[in-house]
Amino acid sequence: MQQVYVADIDAVIDGTLAEAIRKGELSGRLLIHRAIVDYLYEEAKKGKTAGMAGLEDLSSLLGMSAMDLEIAIVDDEKPSRMKTLSLEDVKKITREYAWRTGATLLTSDPLQAKAAQALGVPVYYTARAGREGKLKIEEFFTSKTMSVHLKEGAPPLAKVGRPGRWTFVSLSSEPLTRRDLEDAAREILEAASRMEDGFIEIDRFGSTIVQLKDYRIVITRPPLSEAWEITVVKPVVKLKLEDYNLPDKLLERLRERAEGILIAGAPGMGKTTFAQALAEYYASQGKIVKTIESPRDMKLPAIVTQYSKNYADLGELHDILLLSRPDYTFYDELRSDEDFQLYVDLRLAGIGMVGVVHATTPIDAIQRFIRRVELGMIPSIIDTVIFIDKGQVEKVLDLSITVKLPTGLKEADLSRPVVEVRDFLTGELEYEIYTFGEQTMVVPVKGRQAKMKQEAVTRLIQKILPEAQVEIRDGTVIVRVPRHTPRLTARRLKRIRKIAEKNGFEARIIPF
């Protein structure tokens, strides 16, 4: 009697069915239910890579009929069933078709295999073992390659070096064709479906994001982009917190006080690498650490749970984190209003939060919160800003709130709540944030304070010697006094030197 197989959709799109045929493991009749074709067509119509690649795989399968294997499309459903099918609908249809016809279900999904066996359906299970050798995209990488950029009609390029210090390198003079990109995309999706450390993170109209081993892969295609493009990013190094040689004062802050942390920096400067090192450090200190990522590309110890915001709405993540009460939650990356709102809600609930945010300067990271929360709440939400540049901690800011007269204002009745932003390591005040009328002001005071001090010293000296010419340069007060002025007495000169020293200047008296 001829052996009859019914193909499950997983075996079609992950390449294990085609591999079994190539190896000559199947003979008889192989039936592919039309529901699989309909599902892949709908996915392809939505612009999803999985659907487009699946149709390509299906076309290839239908051309693989051999002397001892007949492949056919079947359908036992009535036309009235035509509707938008989910993946689970398709799996149920194929499973029940195999049950009704007495065929063997050919699947690579262990859950589908168990469900079929519960119905008494024979199962031919294709293992999800990894393919031997490297993927095509892996051949572009060396130990120093940060990312590879493949685009239809252009030669392949690679970014080589380390964060902040890299160069573009051409990998070939030959431009890539659409077929090259489509083949690479299909191979990536097949690998993601069969590997334990691979998954499709996002599949939208015109774009797909895949996490595959250490690789974060972004695939775009028309109509979203004018041509096919694949960008593959891989961490060059995995650092520990000790590798950053942080000052003891900052380490103590991270260990004992910092609970509302922002890690800021420009794209590609090493923010996520530092966040990964900090998360691993907290985990090693016996803290319960969880992450929210999109995609999940941080490589962390098994004790750290990594959530994807693409597989749950933010309300669900909010409930999970409030109920599980981690010591620290890492949010990589903060982009939308919803992201910032979840960060704020969890922080105000008492959970330690570490957010990763794009910013070209440290103060820019703080300004991302200004329009989203009340000014007085900002120091309760953010207490430490760590700015990363070229893979190193470039600056650390500390936030606090006080009631005072903002720098530069004269009238005492203008006192108001002011958020002070200081350089954490030196304690020097750099910015003041306060409301003036209906507007929120972010005022740099570092240079202004120095200028105000210089103006005050100049006024005091000219009050003692009105005819003096005062210049402050390189930490020195230069006082030029007419040689024969009757006011030039030893007592006045002593007072001038005392004023200069009190304000941190040296005094130099030059008669003329």
Task: Report what the structure shows.
- The protein is of the alpha/beta class and 512 residues long.
- It folds into four domains: 4-125, 5'-nuclease (Rossmann fold), CATH 3.40.50; 137-233, Beta-Lactamase; 241-444, Rossmann fold (3-Layer(aba) Sandwich); 448-511, Alpha-Beta Plaits, CATH 3.30.70.
- It contains 15 helices and 25 strands.
- The strands form four sheets. Strands 15-14-16-17-13-18-19-20-21-22 form a ten-stranded mixed sheet, with helices on both faces. A seven-stranded antiparallel sheet has the order 8-7-6-12-11-10-9, covered by helices on one side.
- A hairpin with a 5-residue loop joins strand 6 and strand 7 (157-162).
- Helix 4 (49-62) crosses helix 7 (178-194) and helix 10 packs parallel to helix 11 (337-348).
- The mean pLDDT is 86.
